[in-house]
Amino acid sequence: MIGPASSIYPRAALGPTLQGYSQGPRFIRQGDTTQPPAHARSVLLEEFRSNKTRKWELKDLFGYIVEFSGDQHGSRFIQQKLESATVEERQKVFDEIVPHSALQLMQDVFGNYVVQKLLEHGTQVQRNMVAGVMDGHIMALSLHMYACRVVQKAIEHILPEQQASIVRELEDDVLKCVKDANGNHVIQKLIQCVTPERLGFVGQFRTHVYELSTHPYGCRVLQRCFEHLRPDQTRPLLDELHRHVITLMQDSFGNYVVQWVLLNGSPEDVAFIASQLRGQMLQMAKHKFASNVCERALAAADPERKRLLIEEIMTPLPDGTIPIAIMMKDQYANYVLQRAMKLVGEEQKEALFEKVRPQLTNMRRYSSAYSKHLNSSAC
């Protein structure tokens, strides 16, 4: 039942374009992947697109690099050639783009890939110059559908001081960036690549843990924090998460944050989450999202806490109802029961299976995937 968190996060809302850089021979607005009309192309680009027999070289495009970078086929050609180009050829490409056309191409559906290649294969001096062009525009670039990819690539390749400059530009509006469909990827990249002591903006996440955990993009950023920051930075965030853990288990995004802690957190944090499930296993197991947490908790808890959770689902309720009987017929809880049957310790195994088998006998008259899976586990 448990699936990868990445499957539920679509890329949505587009950020604004940079003001003052929307003019040029080949600027494409966000969401527009159409090519310019033929009459707007140079003769050389027309020939490039139509003449498939000619063996083109990077030097053939010199003087037209910006135009070709904004063309689907031209961009792909330049990207490929930059990987094996000489130092001199890369410099010529660089000089045509930086500084005057760099911002324009960063925002372009095809041009942004060329700038990324320059960052990837360029010299450190060239990377520094690209970073310099971006100064003062980091927020707008980070919120842009295409330019945010360039910012992420830059973060990977520029010097630590320039990384710190990007952090400083974003820190006043970091929560806006975190909640943006494009900007959140930039924040994640900073957390992954920049030394924790330079990430002063993470202090702003305090008192916002519940808000971030239940946000489709914020929950990802929070997980990267837990993964890469120092304990003194994550401890306040985890303590705040603990106060909301039962509610977060039942949230469509928050449950992934709780699962991350169960999978990667300290023994103390895992023990706390498992303890919060005590007395609520049946209710949580029947919940669409919390059932995932129940499965993860059974796998992550220490032997004694796992024993107590399994004991709970075997113990009849005050009205005499057996939780196992309910779980077997539930579309979510049956997966939790299957996980319990796989992970149960030897001292409990026979008792659990003895309670499952009679219920299976009653269910055999129904043809359901639940009973088939449980029957397989009980055999």
UniProtKB/TrEMBL annotation:
<feature type="repeat" description="Pumilio">
    <location>
        <begin position="276"/>
        <end position="311"/>
    </location>
</feature>
<feature type="repeat" description="Pumilio">
    <location>
        <begin position="204"/>
        <end position="239"/>
    </location>
</feature>
<dbReference type="InterPro" id="IPR033712">
    <property type="entry name" value="Pumilio_RNA-bd"/>
</dbReference>
<dbReference type="GO" id="GO:0005737">
    <property type="term" value="C:cytoplasm"/>
</dbReference>
<keyword id="KW-0694">RNA-binding</keyword>
<feature type="repeat" description="Pumilio">
    <location>
        <begin position="240"/>
        <end position="275"/>
    </location>
</feature>
<feature type="repeat" description="Pumilio">
    <location>
        <begin position="96"/>
        <end position="132"/>
    </location>
</feature>
<feature type="repeat" description="Pumilio">
    <location>
        <begin position="60"/>
        <end position="95"/>
    </location>
</feature>
<dbReference type="InterPro" id="IPR016024">
    <property type="entry name" value="ARM-type_fold"/>
</dbReference>
<feature type="domain" description="PUM-HD">
    <location>
        <begin position="40"/>
        <end position="379"/>
    </location>
</feature>
<dbReference type="GO" id="GO:0003730">
    <property type="term" value="F:mRNA 3'-UTR binding"/>
</dbReference>
<keyword id="KW-0677">Repeat</keyword>
<feature type="repeat" description="Pumilio">
    <location>
        <begin position="133"/>
        <end position="168"/>
    </location>
</feature>
<keyword id="KW-0963">Cytoplasm</keyword>
<feature type="repeat" description="Pumilio">
    <location>
        <begin position="312"/>
        <end position="354"/>
    </location>
</feature>
<dbReference type="InterPro" id="IPR033133">
    <property type="entry name" value="PUM-HD"/>
</dbReference>
<comment type="similarity">
    <text>Belongs to the PUF3 family.</text>
</comment>
<dbReference type="GO" id="GO:0000288">
    <property type="term" value="P:nuclear-transcribed mRNA catabolic process, deadenylation-dependent decay"/>
</dbReference>
<protein>
    <recommendedName>
        <fullName>Pumilio homology domain family member 3</fullName>
    </recommendedName>
</protein>
<dbReference type="Pfam" id="PF00806">
    <property type="entry name" value="PUF"/>
</dbReference>
<dbReference type="InterPro" id="IPR001313">
    <property type="entry name" value="Pumilio_RNA-bd_rpt"/>
</dbReference>
<dbReference type="InterPro" id="IPR011989">
    <property type="entry name" value="ARM-like"/>
</dbReference>
